[in-house]
Amino acid sequence: MQAALARRARLGDNKRMARLLLIDNDEKIVALVALLLRKLGHEVRTAPSFARGRELLAQEAPDLLLSDYELGPERADEELPKLVAAGILPPTLVVSGYLDDALVERLLAIPGVLGTLKKPFDLATLQAGLTRALEEAERRRAAAERLADERAARDHGSLGDDDDGDDDDGGWELISPELDAGNDGACTGDGGAA
């Protein structure tokens, strides 16, 4: 819960810092985009491949993964599902100069991929895409947290442990065989003989 509160404080408005992981194999693009993201106030880690990105994700989950689509032999539509299967894909924004409708649809079908951003882009477009993705990621986190809290409350209540001070046992009635001499030992729903 404290981590969620810290994340909300950090992401409460788009002037606050987010922890980002940038995966791209073009050193010049990485240097430029990382510089721009840092100037916007974000903490940025970089990886030149999905393999290195996987190592960094296993160490610490960022608030958002910003990934190029094609990294030489690695492609996001093949590598991101592996990260999902490993349980380490954070909310993700995929960037590429080769986006078409079919590719966008494939990418958005991957759980955790929040959107795409077409290259080339300017700082305003990057900032807007990043802000939308971070807001959507936070909305999804909050919804998942609410759902988990509701399930926990429902599960707690369904066990009959309502801590209201009475000795009820959730509607169960225990009948010892000695006290129910008229019953031949069969269990029935109404507490009577079968």
Question: Any overview of this molecule?
Answer:
The protein is α/β, with parallel strands linked by helices. The chain has one domain (2-150): Rossmann fold. It contains 6 helices and 7 strands, in the order αβαβαβββαβαβα. It has helices spanning 2-11, 27-39, 50-59, 76-85, 101-108, 123-158, and strands spanning 19-23, 43-47, 64-68, 70-71, 74-75, 92-96, 113-118. The strands form 2 sheets. It has a 5-stranded parallel sheet with strand order 2-1-3-6-7, sandwiched between helices. Strands 4-5 form a two-stranded antiparallel sheet. Strand 6, helix 5 and strand 7 form a beta-alpha-beta unit. The two termini are 50 Å apart.
CATH architecture: 3-Layer(aba) Sandwich
Oligomer: single chain
- Write down the secondary-structure element order: HEHEHEEEHEHEH
Basic shape: globular
Residue share in helices?
Answer: 40-55%
Question: How many separate domains make up the residues?
Answer: 1
Uncertain runs are: 1-14, 182-194
Strand order, largest beta sheet: 2-1-3-6-7
Overall number of strands: 7
Largest sheet: 5 strands, parallel
Can you say what the CATH homologous superfamily is?
A: Response regulator
The number of helical segments is 6
Give the overall pLDDT as a whole number. 81
Write the CATH fold name: Rossmann fold
Distance between the termini: 50 Å
